Amino acid sequence: MRFRTRTAPRTAAVLAALLGFLVPLLGLAAPAQAAPTGFRVQNGRLLEASGNDFVMRGVNHAHTWYPNRISSLSHIKTKGANTVRVVLASGDRWTRNSAADVANVVAQCKQNRLICVLEVHDTTGYGDQSGAITLSRAADYWISVKSALTGQEKYVIVNIGNEPYGNSNYARWTAETKAAVQKLRSAGFNHTLMVDAPNWGQDWAFTMRDNAASVFAADPDRNTVFSVHMYGVFNTAAKVNDYLNRFVAAKLPIVVGEFGHNHSDGNPDEDAILAAAQRLRLGYLGWSWSGNSSDVQYLDLVTNFDPNQLTSWGRRLFNGTNGIVATAKEASVFVAVATSTHPLAVPPLHH
Questions:
Q1: Do 289 and 261 form a contact (C-beta atoms < 8 A)?
Q2: Distance CA 68, CA 263 (A)
């Protein structure tokens, strides 16, 4: 027994050294990792399957509350967006969006050449909000509609749960976010995943900021993007820049998943948010296209879902400095399709 236990490691080391010598000598190569099927994170940047850097420039759309407003996706595209974040519901607080409905949303996004960020809204303010659900339950919803998402990794990013903690028990965010990410990976999800910050998305206690590296490392695919929502907490350029700069310095992918020009909790510095996102080449998604309740109706980008009636917030976000029209670039997955199917892409025959 002692003889075996002492020499087995030596034998293994000799074999490993011999293989290390023979493999290059014989022109053999270790099997390469499979290429990613869709979006991926590399060196702190969100990349498309093609390897192109992708910077989200878009808006949020409340699909689950306005399912008959699916034409809004084409209107959002016409205004210049390259991404739309779509509100869905698990059925716990609002009417569940079925797999068929999710598949239709994805198809409509693709038809309109928009990258589709899908989020479950029922997690909003968990701990503070009655009826809000856990991230684990949100993950169960994603698993239940997986048939609508498999194969769409080039077009869809799965935002596990909207603002998953309020201002109570938010320290649990780190462990529960890791567990939700791992639950989806175990279920076979290969998509880029997006995780929202606690504190109603605004991370004023810096739980996400200070634990993002460990959450990223807990994803076996290392394919998680972080999303902060910027409202009244981010009322100065200094706060906006400090928060985003720290993620960039740490090479951790960050987007501003929601923000506005005004809010009940204070006055966000939207100019600073847009400027910082452009300087750092980070994504942003304004809240929201239309249909906000009367107390926050000022956050509507267009009036009554009419694309010809931009509000002052809509004019700022779409047409202002560092806004969507000036900075958005369409995803290369759609550009490639357009190029390959365009008649001019085929050289003429000469006789």
A1: no
A2: 27
Residue 119 designated active-site: no
Residue 330, token pair as written in the block: 């369409």
Q: Which of 48, 153, 258, 270 is catalytic?
A: 258
State how far the Cα of 213 lies from the Cα of 218, in Å rounded to an integer. Answer: 9
Catalytic residue among 163, 176, 270, 330: 163
What is the bridge-based pairing of β-strands 193-196 and 115-120? unpaired
Burial of 46 (0-12, 13-18, 19+ CB in 10 A): buried
pLDDT tens digits for 161-177? 999 999 999 999 999 99
Burial per residue of 242-252, b for 16 or more beta-carbon CB atoms within 10 angstroms, e otherwise: ebbeebbeeeb
This model's pTM is above 0.85:
yes
Q: Give tens-digit pLDDT for 6-49.
A: 333 334 443 444 444 443 444 444 333 345 689 999 999 999 99
Say how far apart CA 161 and CA 194 lie, in whole Å. 8
**Phi then psi for 129, rounded to 5 degrees?**
-105, 125
| 270 is annotated as an active-site residue | no
